[in-house]
Amino acid sequence: MFSFSDAMLLALGVMVVLIMPGPTNTLLAAAGLRQGVRRAARLTVAELAGYTVAITIWGVFLNQAARQFPWLPMATRMVCGLYVAWLAVTMWRSAVALPAAQRRDIGLNTLFVATMLNPKAALFAGTIFPAAAFAGLPAYLEAMGIFAVLLLPIGLSWIAFGAQLGSGRLRWLKPMHAQRGASIVLGVFSATLAWAAFH
C-alpha cells in the first residue's frame, strides 16, 4: 500500500501528463468532433487498455533492468525530463491541429495502438509510477487503479472538448493560447522531473 503522500504524488503526476495534448488526446478530441460525446466515449476504454499494456511492459522491463544497471532509474528520469522539455518547446511553437479531415471514424483499434505507442507510457512507467508498483501485484493494482480513476474523466473531457469545438461554442478559445499555456505547465513539470532525478 502506498502512503497518502505517495498516492497524491502519483495522482498529481498522472493528471498533469494525461491532461497534456499528445497523440492520444488529439485522437480523442477528433473523435468527439466527428462522432459526438456519446459515440466516442467508448474510446476511453481503448485508451485505458493501451496505456495498461504499455505501462506494464515498460515498468516490468525497467524494474528488471534496474537490478543489473542501478543508474537506469535516474537516467530514465533524465531522458523523460528531456522529452517533456522537448514536448513543451514543440507545443509552444505549433498549435494543436485536430485531424478533422479524416474521413473514417476513429475506432477502438486505432486508439488502442496509438496509445500503446504513446511515449507518455514510458514516462508513466519510468518516472511517475513508483518503482514499488512493478515489484508486487498489490502495489501494481493500486497504482493502476489510481491511474484508471483519473484517465476515464480526463479522456472524456478531451472528447467533450472536441465535441464543443465541432458545435462552434468555443470560438473564444484561441488554439495558440491554449497550446502555450499547456507548454508552460509542461516546462514546469520537466523542471520538476530534472530536480527529482538529482535528489
Compact summary:
The protein has one domain (4-80, 97-170).
Helix content: over 70%
Helix and strand pattern? HHHHHHHH
Number of helical runs?
8
Q: Which overall shape is indicated by the principal axes computed on the Cα atoms?
A: globular
Structural class: mainly alpha
Question: Would you tell me the overall average pLDDT?
Answer: 80
Question: Quick one: how many beta strands?
Answer: 0
Describe the oligomeric state of these chains in a short phrase.
Answer: single chain
Give the number of domains.
1
Low-confidence stretches: none
**Biggest sheet layout:** none
Rg result: 17 Å
Strand content: under 5%
Distance between the termini: 23 Å
Structure description:
- The chain is mostly helical.
- The chain has one domain.
- The protein is built from eight helices and no strands.
- The longest helix has 31 residues.
- The model has no long low-confidence stretch (mean pLDDT 80).
SSE inventory with pairings:
Layout: H1 4-19, H2 23-40, H3 43-68, H4 72-93, H5 108-116, H6 120-128, H7 137-167, H8 175-197
Keywords:
199 residues, mainly alpha, 77% helix, 0% strand, membrane, transmembrane, transmembrane helix, cell membrane
